[in-house]
Amino acid sequence: MFIDSHCHIDFPELAERGDELIAAMAANRVSHALCVSVNLPHWPNVIAMAERYPNVYASVGVHPDYEDETEPTVEQLVELARHPRVVAIGETGLDYYRLEGDLEWQRERFRVHIRAARAANKPLIVHTRSASDDTLRIMAEEGAAEAGGVMHCFTETQAVADAAIAQNFYISFSGIVTFKKAEELKEVARTIPLERMLIETDSPYLAPVPFRGKQNQPAYVRHVAEHIADLRGIAVEEVAAATSANFARLFQLEGRL
């Protein structure tokens, strides 16, 4: 069985199709999914998905692209993370690709999330784009290794992957790894330790080949696993077993999946 470690099935384009998505997951041997928070006003929609479907879990956090948000506090994130269906803090991190100017607010928000993860004893879901140096630096400064976590939708270099793994983080591959021109990313997927790998869809975005350009969904995560298996020259069952075990270990769900 496969696990989608990062999706947004609470987003409007998917939320009304919940039963259909869960059925498609079952048909594609996708056993569980993690519905990831991007802001607090819409967090009730995230947790509602996790409450409705027993094989869906939730996170709580504010994405770095959401500029005009009331900044969450450590205490607020910790309190929301007490919900029994919440298994992670995030997604959080830095994104210097979409936004310009003084982005110190992003860096401070990231620090708040790391502190909350440590206080709540929950792992972090980290988004980084065009900001890997600062992301790794702040993780080190704030002791993110204590909480652990995952570098989601990874698109960085082997050196960044190695540095993140050294800080007790997993590397998660999305449908991007199936894209023809993603050669450097494919090499990372070939070489990182299998025991530090997760797979995801980031639904409704980044559908893998053969669905590229179409709306994504958790059922398609198996295509990510199949591509990685081909890259590594191993059976897809090995990728499925390893990434599912890694998911359970990281999100403190061993014996519960």
Order of helices and strands: EHHEHEHEHEHHEHEHEHH
- Percent of residues in beta strands: 15-25%
Lateral arrangement of strands in the main beta sheet: 1-2-3-4-5-6-7-8
What is the SS-derived class? alpha/beta
Give the radius of gyration.
Answer: 17 Å
Percentage of residues in helical conformation: 40-55%
What general outline do the C-alpha atoms trace?
A: globular
Low-confidence stretches: none
Features:
single chain
Explain how this protein is built.
The protein has helices spanning 12-15, 18-27, 43-52, 74-80, 104-120, 132-141, 144-147, 158-166, 183-191, 221-232, 236-250, and strands spanning 2-7, 30-35, 56-60, 86-95, 124-129, 149-151, 169-173, 197-199. The chain is an alpha/beta fold and 257 residues long. Strands 1-2-3-4-5-6-7-8 form an 8-stranded parallel sheet. The N and C termini lie close together (11 Å). 50% of the residues are buried. The model has no long low-confidence stretch (mean pLDDT 97).
